[in-house]
Amino acid sequence: MAEAISNKQELFTCSICLDLLKDPVTLNCGHNYCTVCIKDCWDHQEDQKGVYSCPQCRQTFTPRPTLHKNNVVAELVEQLRKTRIQDAASPQSFAGPGDVECDSCTGRKLKAVKSCLVCLVSYCETHLQRHDDLITGKRHNVVDVTGQLQDKICTQHQKLLEVFCRTDQSCVCLLCLMDEHKGHDTVSAATERTEKQMELGENKRRLQQRLQEREKELQDLRKAVETLKSSAQTAVEDSERIFTEMIRSIERRRSEVKELIRAQEKAELRQAEGLQKQLEQEIAELKRRDADLEQLSHTEDHIHFLKTFKSVSHPPQSKDLSGITVNKRKTFETVKTSVLKLKKQLRDICKQEIMRIYVAVKSMVIVNVESTNKDSKKTDANVGFKFDASHLTFNTASTASPTDASTAPSNDPAHAVANFTSITSTSSTGPLIFGNLPVTEPTTLAPSVPPENKALALPTAGFSFGTEPIFTFSSGTTTAAGPVGFSFSKPEAAVEPEPVFIFGKPAEKSEAVAYFTFGLRSTVSDVQADFTEPVTREEFLKYSCHFTLDQNTALRNLHLSEGNRRVEWIAECQSYPDHPERFDEYCQVLCREGVSGRCYWEVEWSGWVYIAVSYKSISRKGVGHECGFGYNDKSWGLYTSSSFFRHNNKQTKLPLVASSRIGVYVDHRAGALAFYNISDTMTLLHRVQTIFTHKLYPGFGLGPYSSVKLL
Questions:
Q1: How confident is the model at residue 360 (pLDDT cuts 50, 70, 90)?
Q2: Which CATH class is domain 1-89?
Q3: pTM over 0.85, yes/no
């Protein structure tokens, strides 16, 4: 039945508002109208001497009929209205965000499908049909629906814009041509559109050409990026292998030095023990002879005394020890001094060589931006930068032929710095700044490693073993070491490096290297401490640190106990005094002690806890993110109960569930932060690699009825 009603919905349409009947009433002639519509219509007929007519059949009524609601028609209209709502999923649906609404619909409007440029109205399918029925025989310009009908109307004359004024470059209506645009160069909108269409085609052609160029540049850039990734991976693997070999080599030399010290100790002990035994035997003999003499001195028998005196009066024979000198204060302290000197040398060399590596890495640039405007001022790269790819070149070659000296990449750090500077800088107008050293005169950046045909020169220092100096390093070079380990020198001031002297004699290059390597290997423990991380729990515990909680930072709902090594949340506020470092909203507490080197600690937790490290400068007052652990760039937090890590308000889900005991490891200088599950085994939960700029302080956040204990 609903389908039959839907097919005859024009029978239930008000001929006045062209919409479904609302509160339908039936006139004596049989036509139906909305109560409001027919009342408004007859109200306008009041001046016709009390004669009222049907808007459709024009049948007249005198006096004005009393209107009564037609309940049967009202029920049918309601069924039809429900049917239309159910059909809203069809293409003719209600207007949503971004859709153009039908201007003729009342209540909830349907989506318009066409717009009439004459009526300046948009219609849905239903009202479009009514529109077409009403304008039969007339020419109306009906176009696809547009929500910009008002833009097509002249704001001055309220007429359709049909003409384009080339003089004023604006669209005008016909009335405008007879007024302010009279005598101007005007054409129809269609004519101007044709010309602009041709111009649009040319613009599109240029745009497509530029698009192709950009796509090619993007392809080249992607190729360069892939080459860079491959080269970087190879460099990382090679570096790992080389450093591993270095560590193993130093490990072997450490054993050799240890054996050397033990062998020297054993030889000296053997000699000392032999002499000690000899001295002990002689002392025993002398004591025995002294006892005999003492006994003889007390005898009263003169004859026995005289006979015995001759045999005991001569001292026992002993080895001449006058040529033996015992150095009571002789220790291996000189070895320690030598190792400390070598440690300093090693660190200086590491700084220098690491900077070389840094320069070599920084010279790996795949995008070169060349400046074409010499008069242009330097522009901050972060302000007002306009991308212009016309001067971009991509270094896509990962390797060069070793025989091609002109194209092969140079391993000389000076070349790398020069290349890097030319790539990243515009024309230089001021002194060159490298590190903290300004160079205002033309200089050359010379690597401190001498050429192959020059004498070996080691850093100016002294390395001694025992009391004899093993190395005597030459001095007198005129080059000035920069803060990054390179030498800045004028070409004409170059000085020939002097040779190394060993035990006062000039050393061969290989001999000098051997001695230097021997000294270098003795510092393996320091090198390993600087470049390797602990693996087992026993190794981590070597870096164990003792922390105490700072009561001046604790929220008043946190109770400290066990020597400020345990904290728990309680409902009752503590009577802590006001303090500028106290968190007044976040349920958090910091430790008194900070971390600036390597440190490891363990905690036990229960409830809802997050374990954090933070700079001391973290905000303490308020509920903003600047105060919460992990919500800013000054803190890092592990949320144990929810198993996620947060820093700078960025959350990372943990692969494992946190155990009730957590280990925290910090290597401040290396920028490493790691959290571990501690049980029968030690399992990594999360690791962060960053750069720490200030001392770190352990901290904890607690939820209701939670607790944390420092172990």
A1: confident
A2: alpha beta
A3: no
